[in-house]
UniProtKB/TrEMBL annotation:
Keyword Transferase on entry: yes
Domain of life: Bacteria
Keyword Transferase among record annotations: yes
Pfam family, one: Glycos_transf_1
CDD domains given in the database record: GT4_AviGT4-like (cd03802)
Domain Glycosyltransferase subfamily 4-like N-terminal, residue spans: 18-124
Domain Glycosyl transferase family positions: 169-310
Keywords: Transferase
Full protein name: Glycosyl transferase group 1
Length: 349
Protein backbone atom coordinates (compact mmCIF):
# COMPACT_ATOMS: atom_id res chain seq x y z
CA UNK A 1 0.00 0.00 0.00
CA UNK A 2 1.23 3.53 -0.81
CA UNK A 3 0.74 5.51 2.39
CA UNK A 4 1.51 9.13 3.25
CA UNK A 5 1.98 10.23 6.86
CA UNK A 6 1.60 13.98 7.47
CA UNK A 7 3.20 15.04 10.76
CA UNK A 8 3.11 18.33 12.70
CA UNK A 9 6.17 20.49 12.10
CA UNK A 10 6.58 21.67 15.71
CA UNK A 11 8.97 18.79 16.46
CA UNK A 12 11.10 16.50 14.31
CA UNK A 13 9.98 12.89 13.72
CA UNK A 14 10.94 11.46 16.12
CA UNK A 15 11.29 14.46 18.47
CA UNK A 16 14.63 15.16 20.10
CA UNK A 17 13.00 15.50 23.54
CA UNK A 18 9.31 16.06 24.37
CA UNK A 19 6.70 15.47 21.65
CA UNK A 20 4.04 12.77 21.87
CA UNK A 21 2.38 13.09 18.46
CA UNK A 22 5.61 13.15 16.48
CA UNK A 23 6.89 10.16 18.44
CA UNK A 24 3.78 8.13 17.63
CA UNK A 25 3.99 9.11 13.94
CA UNK A 26 7.59 7.85 13.93
CA UNK A 27 6.72 4.48 15.48
CA UNK A 28 3.80 4.00 13.09
CA UNK A 29 5.85 4.98 10.03
CA UNK A 30 8.73 2.66 10.91
CA UNK A 31 6.40 -0.26 11.56
CA UNK A 32 4.55 0.23 8.25
CA UNK A 33 7.88 0.31 6.37
CA UNK A 34 8.95 -2.86 8.19
CA UNK A 35 5.71 -4.50 7.04
CA UNK A 36 6.65 -3.78 3.43
CA UNK A 37 4.46 -0.78 2.66
CA UNK A 38 5.59 2.18 0.56
CA UNK A 39 5.49 5.04 3.05
CA UNK A 40 6.15 8.75 2.53
CA UNK A 41 6.58 11.09 5.50
CA UNK A 42 5.84 14.81 5.31
CA UNK A 43 7.79 16.36 8.20
CA UNK A 44 10.65 18.70 9.11
CA UNK A 45 13.99 18.12 7.39
CA UNK A 46 15.73 17.13 10.65
CA UNK A 47 13.48 14.06 10.93
CA UNK A 48 14.96 10.55 10.83
CA UNK A 49 12.96 7.91 9.00
CA UNK A 50 13.17 4.70 6.96
CA UNK A 51 10.36 6.06 4.77
CA UNK A 52 10.76 8.54 1.92
CA UNK A 53 11.00 11.96 3.56
CA UNK A 54 9.48 15.03 1.94
CA UNK A 55 10.92 17.88 4.05
CA UNK A 56 8.58 20.78 4.69
CA UNK A 57 10.82 22.98 6.89
CA UNK A 58 14.58 23.05 7.44
CA UNK A 59 14.15 22.01 11.06
CA UNK A 60 11.46 21.53 13.68
CA UNK A 61 9.69 24.79 14.43
CA UNK A 62 10.20 24.66 18.21
CA UNK A 63 13.96 24.68 17.73
CA UNK A 64 13.92 27.56 15.24
CA UNK A 65 13.91 30.95 17.05
CA UNK A 66 13.10 32.79 13.81
CA UNK A 67 9.66 31.17 13.51
CA UNK A 68 6.83 33.42 14.68
CA UNK A 69 3.87 31.92 12.78
CA UNK A 70 3.87 28.07 12.76
CA UNK A 71 0.62 27.99 10.78
CA UNK A 72 2.30 29.52 7.73
CA UNK A 73 4.69 26.58 7.50
CA UNK A 74 1.86 24.06 7.83
CA UNK A 75 -0.03 25.73 4.96
CA UNK A 76 3.07 25.37 2.75
CA UNK A 77 3.22 21.70 3.77
CA UNK A 78 -0.39 21.20 2.69
CA UNK A 79 0.48 22.61 -0.73
CA UNK A 80 3.19 19.95 -0.98
CA UNK A 81 0.77 17.24 0.11
CA UNK A 82 -1.67 18.35 -2.61
CA UNK A 83 1.13 18.29 -5.19
CA UNK A 84 2.09 14.70 -4.38
CA UNK A 85 -1.41 13.44 -3.46
CA UNK A 86 -1.94 11.38 -6.63
CA UNK A 87 1.02 9.15 -5.66
CA UNK A 88 -0.73 7.67 -2.60
CA UNK A 89 -3.50 5.17 -1.95
CA UNK A 90 -4.28 6.95 1.31
CA UNK A 91 -3.05 9.99 3.23
CA UNK A 92 -2.93 9.83 7.02
CA UNK A 93 -2.98 13.26 8.71
CA UNK A 94 -1.84 14.05 12.26
CA UNK A 95 -2.26 17.86 12.09
CA UNK A 96 -5.72 18.40 13.59
CA UNK A 97 -8.20 19.82 11.06
CA UNK A 98 -6.42 22.41 8.91
CA UNK A 99 -6.45 20.12 5.85
CA UNK A 100 -10.23 19.50 5.88
CA UNK A 101 -11.14 22.14 3.24
CA UNK A 102 -8.36 20.90 0.97
CA UNK A 103 -9.29 17.23 1.22
CA UNK A 104 -12.94 18.02 0.60
CA UNK A 105 -11.86 19.23 -2.85
CA UNK A 106 -9.38 16.44 -3.67
CA UNK A 107 -10.66 13.01 -4.64
CA UNK A 108 -8.10 11.25 -2.44
CA UNK A 109 -8.69 8.71 0.32
CA UNK A 110 -7.60 10.09 3.66
CA UNK A 111 -7.99 9.74 7.41
CA UNK A 112 -7.06 11.94 10.36
CA UNK A 113 -5.96 10.90 13.83
CA UNK A 114 -6.99 13.49 16.41
CA UNK A 115 -4.26 13.63 19.05
CA UNK A 116 -5.45 16.48 21.25
CA UNK A 117 -8.26 17.47 23.58
CA UNK A 118 -11.62 18.02 21.92
CA UNK A 119 -13.68 19.61 24.71
CA UNK A 120 -13.38 23.05 23.11
CA UNK A 121 -16.66 24.78 22.08
CA UNK A 122 -15.16 26.17 18.85
CA UNK A 123 -14.70 22.64 17.51
CA UNK A 124 -18.39 21.71 17.43
CA UNK A 125 -19.40 23.87 14.45
CA UNK A 126 -16.23 22.82 12.64
CA UNK A 127 -16.97 19.11 12.89
CA UNK A 128 -20.62 19.72 12.06
CA UNK A 129 -19.48 21.38 8.83
CA UNK A 130 -16.86 18.74 7.96
CA UNK A 131 -18.88 15.73 9.06
CA UNK A 132 -17.71 13.70 6.05
CA UNK A 133 -14.04 13.76 7.14
CA UNK A 134 -13.06 10.33 8.55
CA UNK A 135 -11.36 10.67 11.93
CA UNK A 136 -9.69 8.27 14.37
CA UNK A 137 -9.73 8.73 18.14
CA UNK A 138 -6.84 7.63 20.37
CA UNK A 139 -9.29 6.65 23.13
CA UNK A 140 -13.04 6.22 23.30
CA UNK A 141 -13.19 8.88 26.02
CA UNK A 142 -11.69 11.43 23.63
CA UNK A 143 -14.79 11.25 21.40
CA UNK A 144 -17.25 12.49 24.03
CA UNK A 145 -17.42 16.21 23.12
CA UNK A 146 -17.83 15.57 19.36
CA UNK A 147 -20.43 12.85 18.76
CA UNK A 148 -21.24 14.40 15.37
CA UNK A 149 -17.76 13.69 13.94
CA UNK A 150 -17.31 10.80 11.51
CA UNK A 151 -15.49 8.43 13.83
CA UNK A 152 -14.19 5.39 11.96
CA UNK A 153 -12.10 3.74 14.72
CA UNK A 154 -10.27 4.09 18.00
CA UNK A 155 -6.61 3.15 17.70
CA UNK A 156 -4.49 3.18 20.83
CA UNK A 157 -0.90 4.38 20.65
CA UNK A 158 1.91 1.83 20.54
CA UNK A 159 5.65 1.66 21.21
CA UNK A 160 8.34 -0.64 19.74
CA UNK A 161 8.66 -3.75 21.87
CA UNK A 162 12.39 -3.27 22.35
CA UNK A 163 12.29 0.48 23.08
CA UNK A 164 12.24 0.03 26.86
CA UNK A 165 13.88 -2.67 28.94
CA UNK A 166 11.79 -4.69 31.38
CA UNK A 167 13.01 -4.51 34.97
CA UNK A 168 11.76 -7.14 37.36
CA UNK A 169 12.66 -5.36 40.60
CA UNK A 170 10.93 -2.13 41.66
CA UNK A 171 12.93 0.96 42.46
CA UNK A 172 12.65 3.15 45.54
CA UNK A 173 11.22 6.37 44.13
CA UNK A 174 8.02 7.63 42.57
CA UNK A 175 8.23 9.15 39.09
CA UNK A 176 6.45 12.06 37.41
CA UNK A 177 7.21 12.44 33.71
CA UNK A 178 5.84 14.80 31.07
CA UNK A 179 5.06 18.50 31.11
CA UNK A 180 4.66 20.96 33.96
CA UNK A 181 1.16 22.36 33.55
CA UNK A 182 -1.97 22.86 35.70
CA UNK A 183 -3.84 19.96 34.06
CA UNK A 184 -0.97 17.50 34.64
CA UNK A 185 -1.08 18.32 38.39
CA UNK A 186 2.57 17.94 39.45
CA UNK A 187 1.45 19.59 42.71
CA UNK A 188 -0.67 16.51 43.42
CA UNK A 189 2.31 14.27 42.74
CA UNK A 190 4.39 16.21 45.27
CA UNK A 191 1.65 15.95 47.93
CA UNK A 192 1.33 12.20 47.34
CA UNK A 193 5.08 11.69 47.76
CA UNK A 194 5.21 13.78 50.93
CA UNK A 195 2.29 11.98 52.54
CA UNK A 196 3.56 8.55 51.47
CA UNK A 197 7.08 9.37 52.68
CA UNK A 198 8.69 8.39 49.38
CA UNK A 199 11.09 10.28 47.14
CA UNK A 200 9.57 11.82 43.99
CA UNK A 201 11.69 12.47 40.89
CA UNK A 202 10.17 14.93 38.40
CA UNK A 203 11.41 14.76 34.81
CA UNK A 204 9.39 17.39 33.01
CA UNK A 205 9.42 20.07 30.35
CA UNK A 206 8.34 23.63 31.18
CA UNK A 207 6.73 25.33 28.15
CA UNK A 208 6.80 29.09 27.93
CA UNK A 209 3.00 29.08 28.25
CA UNK A 210 3.32 27.34 31.62
CA UNK A 211 6.31 29.31 32.93
CA UNK A 212 4.21 31.54 35.21
CA UNK A 213 2.45 28.49 36.69
CA UNK A 214 5.80 26.80 37.29
CA UNK A 215 7.30 29.86 38.99
CA UNK A 216 4.25 30.66 41.15
CA UNK A 217 2.94 27.20 42.08
CA UNK A 218 5.47 24.44 41.49
CA UNK A 219 8.86 26.01 42.14
CA UNK A 220 8.12 26.72 45.84
CA UNK A 221 7.05 23.07 46.26
CA UNK A 222 10.39 21.85 44.91
CA UNK A 223 11.98 22.89 48.21
CA UNK A 224 10.44 19.79 49.75
CA UNK A 225 13.08 17.24 50.85
CA UNK A 226 10.96 14.55 49.18
CA UNK A 227 11.27 16.09 45.70
CA UNK A 228 14.00 16.24 43.07
CA UNK A 229 13.44 18.15 39.81
CA UNK A 230 15.43 16.73 36.89
CA UNK A 231 13.98 18.63 33.91
CA UNK A 232 13.36 17.42 30.36
CA UNK A 233 14.88 14.05 29.40
CA UNK A 234 15.32 12.04 26.18
CA UNK A 235 14.27 8.46 25.33
CA UNK A 236 17.48 6.84 26.57
CA UNK A 237 17.24 8.66 29.89
CA UNK A 238 13.53 7.86 30.06
CA UNK A 239 14.26 4.12 29.98
CA UNK A 240 16.36 4.39 33.13
CA UNK A 241 14.08 6.92 34.78
CA UNK A 242 10.87 4.89 34.37
CA UNK A 243 12.42 1.45 34.64
CA UNK A 244 14.04 2.15 37.99
CA UNK A 245 10.92 3.72 39.52
CA UNK A 246 8.68 2.13 42.12
CA UNK A 247 5.61 3.55 40.36
CA UNK A 248 4.64 6.28 37.92
CA UNK A 249 2.31 8.97 39.24
CA UNK A 250 -0.25 10.20 36.67
CA UNK A 251 -2.40 12.60 38.75
CA UNK A 252 -4.06 14.40 35.83
CA UNK A 253 -6.94 16.86 36.14
CA UNK A 254 -8.17 17.00 32.53
CA UNK A 255 -9.68 14.68 29.87
CA UNK A 256 -6.35 13.22 28.74
CA UNK A 257 -6.88 11.77 25.23
CA UNK A 258 -4.32 8.98 25.77
CA UNK A 259 -1.29 9.49 28.03
CA UNK A 260 1.72 7.89 26.32
CA UNK A 261 3.77 7.89 29.52
CA UNK A 262 1.45 5.26 31.04
CA UNK A 263 2.39 2.65 28.43
CA UNK A 264 6.03 3.75 28.52
CA UNK A 265 6.06 2.93 32.24
CA UNK A 266 4.31 -0.40 31.68
CA UNK A 267 6.83 -1.31 28.98
CA UNK A 268 9.50 -1.12 31.72
CA UNK A 269 7.32 -3.16 34.07
CA UNK A 270 6.52 -0.11 36.20
CA UNK A 271 2.92 0.16 37.45
CA UNK A 272 0.94 3.40 37.23
CA UNK A 273 -1.09 5.24 39.88
CA UNK A 274 -3.53 7.37 37.88
CA UNK A 275 -6.56 9.58 38.43
CA UNK A 276 -9.85 8.34 36.94
CA UNK A 277 -9.96 10.89 34.14
CA UNK A 278 -10.06 10.85 30.34
CA UNK A 279 -8.48 7.75 28.82
CA UNK A 280 -7.12 6.34 32.09
CA UNK A 281 -9.74 3.57 32.58
CA UNK A 282 -9.08 2.37 29.01
CA UNK A 283 -5.31 2.15 29.46
CA UNK A 284 -5.04 1.04 33.09
CA UNK A 285 -6.63 -2.23 34.18
CA UNK A 286 -7.16 -1.54 37.88
CA UNK A 287 -5.19 -4.01 39.95
CA UNK A 288 -3.30 -5.36 36.92
CA UNK A 289 -0.99 -2.76 35.33
CA UNK A 290 -1.77 -0.01 37.80
CA UNK A 291 -4.24 1.47 40.26
CA UNK A 292 -6.95 4.02 39.47
CA UNK A 293 -7.73 6.58 42.17
CA UNK A 294 -10.14 9.48 42.66
CA UNK A 295 -8.66 11.37 45.60
CA UNK A 296 -5.41 12.24 47.32
CA UNK A 297 -6.18 9.83 50.14
CA UNK A 298 -6.74 6.99 47.67
CA UNK A 299 -3.51 7.85 45.89
CA UNK A 300 -1.50 7.71 49.10
CA UNK A 301 -3.03 4.31 49.94
CA UNK A 302 -2.27 3.16 46.38
CA UNK A 303 1.43 3.81 46.97
CA UNK A 304 1.29 1.16 49.71
CA UNK A 305 -0.73 -1.27 47.55
CA UNK A 306 1.29 -0.96 44.35
CA UNK A 307 3.94 -3.38 45.61
CA UNK A 308 1.30 -6.12 45.33
CA UNK A 309 1.12 -5.68 41.55
CA UNK A 310 3.18 -7.86 39.23
CA UNK A 311 5.71 -5.96 37.16
CA UNK A 312 5.68 -8.90 34.74
CA UNK A 313 1.92 -8.40 34.30
CA UNK A 314 2.50 -4.70 33.53
CA UNK A 315 4.87 -5.70 30.75
CA UNK A 316 2.44 -8.34 29.45
CA UNK A 317 -0.38 -5.79 29.17
CA UNK A 318 1.96 -3.55 27.18
CA UNK A 319 3.00 -6.38 24.83
CA UNK A 320 -0.58 -7.48 24.24
CA UNK A 321 -2.22 -4.08 23.69
CA UNK A 322 0.24 -1.25 23.20
CA UNK A 323 3.08 -2.18 20.84
CA UNK A 324 3.71 -0.31 17.58
CA UNK A 325 3.01 -3.55 15.70
CA UNK A 326 -0.49 -3.73 17.19
CA UNK A 327 -1.00 -0.04 16.42
CA UNK A 328 0.15 -0.43 12.79
CA UNK A 329 -2.11 -3.45 12.21
CA UNK A 330 -5.07 -1.51 13.56
CA UNK A 331 -4.32 1.46 11.30
CA UNK A 332 -3.96 -0.83 8.28
CA UNK A 333 -7.46 -2.13 9.03
CA UNK A 334 -8.67 1.49 9.03
CA UNK A 335 -6.94 2.23 5.70
CA UNK A 336 -8.40 -0.90 4.09
CA UNK A 337 -11.88 -0.05 5.34
CA UNK A 338 -11.71 3.48 3.90
CA UNK A 339 -10.35 2.24 0.56
CA UNK A 340 -13.02 -0.47 0.42
CA UNK A 341 -15.76 2.12 0.89
CA UNK A 342 -14.37 4.15 -1.98
CA UNK A 343 -14.43 1.28 -4.48
CA UNK A 344 -17.20 1.68 -7.09
CA UNK A 345 -20.00 -0.83 -6.71
CA UNK A 346 -19.78 -3.62 -9.29
CA UNK A 347 -22.70 -3.67 -11.70
CA UNK A 348 -24.87 -6.74 -11.51
CA UNK A 349 -24.20 -9.14 -14.36
Amino acid sequence: MRIAQVAPLHESVPPKLYGGTERVVHYLTEELVKMGHEVTLFASKDSQTSARLIPCTERSLRLDPTVKDPLAHHIIMLEKVARYAHQFDIIHFHIDYIHFPLMRRLNISHVTTLHGRLDIPDLKPLYQEFNEAPVVSISNAQRGPLPMARWVATVYHGLPEDLYRFREKPGKYLAFLGRISPEKRPDRAIKIAERAGMKLLIAAKVDQADRAYFEAVIKPLLKSPWVEFIGEINDREKDEFLGNAYALLFPIDWPEPFGLVMIEANACGTPVIAWRCGSVPEIIEHGVNGLIVESLDEAVKAVEKVSQLSRQKCREVFEKRFTSKVMAKNYLAVYESILEQKKPLLKAA
